[in-house]
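Students often ask why inverse folding is considered easier than folding. One informal answer: many sequences map to the same fold, so there is more than one right answer. In these notes we will look at a single instance of the problem. The structure comes first.
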């Protein structure tokens, strides 16, 4: 079972590269951002709570995200090749919860693909994406808040996974295909 975490700042290319990884390895996609946007669209209680955080560029509280992730993972069933976790974990607590969840299923995180992109490029990409994504949080003001959130709450996870020997550093600037070629090497090394 291939359990891949794709890790990086907003705008680092997690969604784009996830699609390529799914096409190549046949793993299931779990994007907590997509699940939350689905909840908002369906106007559920979780969606209403989440929207307030998302629109401020803040993280949705760990307890809500961890329960949501567990339910999403269970819904995938057992007959799968693996999962790509996109946008999760975003805090140390979430990473610890993921390790526990996988351990209960006799599995573990196979590798963490860390897409590294400089800030100026990230802001440029998020604003460009905003023109077509329809996402309320893809604007310059919220993008800056999301980046601050990333540096204070999510980046510490890099060290967490480096210590576990799982962090594969990938230069996230370049053509989509050349970046994917690097990702493929990292995944094939743990397959
Ligand atoms: P994304 O689509 O991954 O950029 O996520 C959009 C927004 O959803 C984030 O800015 C957060 O507000 C929220 N979100 C997504 N995933 C998580 C997570 N794992 N933990 C907390 N908040 C999350």
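Output (designed amino acids):
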């Amino acid at each position: 079972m291939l359990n891949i975490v794709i890790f990086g700042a907003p705008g680092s290319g997690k969604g784009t590269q996830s699609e390529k990884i799914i096409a190549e390895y046949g793993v299931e996609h779990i994007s907590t951002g997509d699940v939350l946007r689905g909840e908002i669209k369906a106007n559920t209680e979780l969606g209403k709570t989440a929207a307030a955080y998302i629109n401020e560029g803040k993280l949705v509280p760990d307890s809500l995200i961890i329960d949501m992730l567990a339910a999403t993972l269970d819904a995938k069933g057992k007959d799968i090749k693996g999962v790509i976790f996109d946008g999760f974990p975003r805090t140390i607590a979430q990473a610890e919860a993921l390790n526990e969840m996988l351990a209960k299923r006799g599995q573990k995180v196979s590798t963490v693909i860390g897409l590294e992109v400089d800030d100026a490029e990230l802001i440029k990409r998020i604003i460009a994406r905003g023109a077509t994504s329809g996402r309320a949080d893809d604007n310059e003001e919220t993008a800056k808040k999301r980046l601050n959130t990333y540096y204070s709450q999510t980046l510490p996870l890099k060290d967490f996974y480096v210590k576990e020997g799982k962090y594969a550093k990938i230069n996230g600037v370049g053509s989509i295909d050349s970046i994917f070629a690097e990702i493929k090497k990292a995944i094939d090394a743990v397959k």
